[in-house]
Design goal:
The protein is an all-beta fold and 124 residues long. The chain is built from no helices and 11 strands. Helices cover 0% and strands 49% of the residues. β7 and β8 form a beta hairpin.
C-alpha cells in the first residue's frame, strides 16, 4: 500500500513558477515509478510527467516539455514537479500517482495509487 499526499499548489501569474510535492507513505516507495497527471474543468485527466523508480528515466507530455521537471528523493519518500514558465492553460488539479511499472508510464490505467490532488491556477 502507498498513500500519496500532494502539496504546493496555488495561484500564480503567467510566466511564474511553482513546485509541487508528493509525499508517500510506506516503505516500498522506491519500488514504484511515479507520475504526475492533471485535470482541468470539463476535461479528462491527462499525463504530465513520469519518473522511474531510480529517478534515472523521465518522460514528459509535449505540452510541458522544457518547462516542467519531475524528480524524486527516495530517502524522503517524495516526488516533485518543478513547473516554470507557467501558462493559463496549465490551470488544473494536479495528481501524483504510483505505478509498479518501474520505468514509469504515461497511461492513467497503469497507476495503482493516487493522491487527492492539488489545485494550480495560472492567471493571465
Amino acid at each position: 500500500q502507498v498513500q500519496l499526499v500532494e502539496s504546493g499548489g496555488g495561484l500564480v501569474q503567467a510566466g511564474g513558477s511553482l513546485r509541487l510535492s508528493c509525499a508517500a507513505s510506506g516503505r516500498t516507495f522506491s519500488s514504484y515509478a511515479m507520475g504526475w497527471f492533471r485535470q482541468a474543468p470539463g476535461k479528462e485527466r491527462g499525463f504530465v510527467a513520469t519518473i522511474s523508480w531510480s529517478g534515472g528515466t523521465t518522460s514528459y507530455a509535449d505540452s510541458v516539455k522544457g518547462r516542467f521537471t519531475i524528480s524524486r528523493d527516495n530517502a524522503k519518500n517524495t516526488v516533485y514537479l518543478q513547473m516554470n514558465s507557467l501558462k493559463p492553460e496549465d490551470t488544473a488539479v494536479y495528481y501524483c500517482a504510483a505505478t509498479p511499472y518501474i520505468t514509469g508510464s504515461s497511461r492513467l490505467y497503469d497507476y495503482d495509487y493516487w493522491g487527492q490532488g492539488t489545485q494550480v491556477t495560472v492567471s493571465s
